[in-house]
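Module 6 notes. Inverse folding takes a fixed backbone as the condition and produces residue identities as the prediction. Think of it as a translation problem where the source language is geometry and the target language is the twenty amino acids. Below is one complete input and output pair. Work through it position by position during the lab.
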């Protein structure tokens, strides 16, 4: 499967901490929303309406513009049964597609194994960020991870080894309590040396890059610029992964969440502008996800862990619009008496991307058959 002769590329952006979906895609004409959130609420006259029921957060104007251009699919009510409210466990479930038992392979690790079974390219998957996302890990699957593309080229071999060792140690500390030190050490033994194997090759990407797009000075903008530079260097990367942190809004949400929305939507818009200017956008689709939504009622200054979140698919080949069903705001239908319920299994969006975008059989990767959406334009 190719797009204009090019292999399809998937960029995954993780919103770490549990993004408040209700304050991202806002039910701005529903009185329950305002009654439930006397403090953490977006005034009706400030939102960016999609239709008579839903609206974008006013701080996500660049994303709304892309939505109006038909490039953003909003997946509503995404989640799974018996949603975990633990950051670690919830993210682990999203990374491994194992909501009942603890998984030992990431869904993207399995994907990489299907794309490059002979391990011919250590840059088939690139993580921009610290450590090793569980989603990318699978025994025998090489992954390249860099925290900052500009600094990689300036580091000595000793500094690179120290950084690699710190990343591996972080991975070990994060995952050993959940899956056991044996499984972690097995993974490190087989693939740990590949974490920075591709760093030498990646050093050339910044030198090959020229652009008139000025990315903002924040972490997600810098990360997506690194994704753009690597993609446009033509190094054969098919899977990119990066994260945007800070979404755990237990307090001061009205201060922190708007800033995150501005950073995220601005970075995504600049990223796709950059790709389009270099004739490198058609083959790229972005998946934006978070581990869970927030509770219906605010806590006086923020919102606590909940469910019924949302995700986005973004790209030139995406048929924009609203997908799945926004969870009911009727208090009688709240999950656990305080959460939005989920309406669409997260493994369905993975299956959609794997089957319809990457051309892979999703069943062995997500461990089952799940309802797919139809978000991709043909031709």
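Target side of the pair, the amino acids:
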């Amino acid at each position: 499967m190719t797009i204009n002769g090019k292999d399809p590329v998937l960029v995954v952006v993780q919103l770490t901490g549990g993004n408040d979906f209700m304050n991202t895609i806002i039910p701005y004409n529903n009185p329950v929303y305002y009654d439930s959130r006397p403090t953490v609420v977006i005034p009706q006259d400030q939102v960016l309406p999609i239709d008579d029921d839903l609206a974008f957060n006013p701080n996500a104007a660049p994303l709304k513009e892309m939505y109006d251009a038909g490039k953003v699919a909003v997946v509503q009510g995404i989640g799974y049964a018996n949603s975990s409210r633990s950051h670690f466990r919830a993210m682990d479930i999203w990374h491994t597609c194992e909501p009942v038992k603890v998984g030992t392979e990431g869904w993207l690790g399995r994907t990489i194994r299907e794309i490059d079974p002979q391990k011919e390219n250590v840059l088939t998957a690139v993580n921009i960020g610290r450590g090793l996302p569980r989603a990318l890990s699978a025994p025998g699957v090489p992954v390249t991870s860099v925290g900052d593309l500009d600094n990689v080229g300036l580091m000595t071999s000793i500094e690179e080894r120290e950084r690699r060792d710190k990343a591996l140690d972080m991975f070990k500390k994060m995952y050993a309590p959940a899956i056991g030190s044996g499984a972690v050490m097995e993974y490190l033994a087989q693939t740990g040396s590949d974490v920075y194997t591709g760093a030498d090759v990646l050093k050339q990407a910044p030198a090959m890059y020229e652009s008139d797009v000025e990315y903002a000075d924040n972490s997600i903008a810098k990360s997506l610029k690194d994704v753009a530079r690597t993609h446009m260097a033509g190094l054969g990367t098919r899977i990119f992964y990066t994260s945007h942190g800070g979404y755990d809004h237990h307090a001061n949400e009205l201060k922190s969440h708007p800033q995150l929305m501005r950073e995220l939507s601005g970075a995504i818009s600049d990223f796709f502008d950059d790709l389009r200017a270099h004739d490198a956008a058609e083959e790229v689709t972005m998946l934006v996800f978070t581990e869970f939504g927030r509770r219906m009622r605010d806590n006086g200054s923020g919102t606590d862990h909940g469910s019924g979140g949302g995700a986005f698919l973004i790209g030139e080949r995406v048929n924009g619009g609203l997908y799945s069903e926004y969870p009911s705001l009727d208090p009688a239908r709240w999950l656990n008496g305080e959460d939005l319920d989920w309406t669409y299994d997260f493994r369905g969006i993975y299956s959609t991307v794997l089957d319809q975008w990457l051309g892979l059989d999703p069943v062995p990767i997500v461990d089952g058959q799940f309802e797919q959406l139809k978000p991709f334009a043909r031709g």
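Reference fact for the lab report: The chain is about 35% helix and 15% strand.
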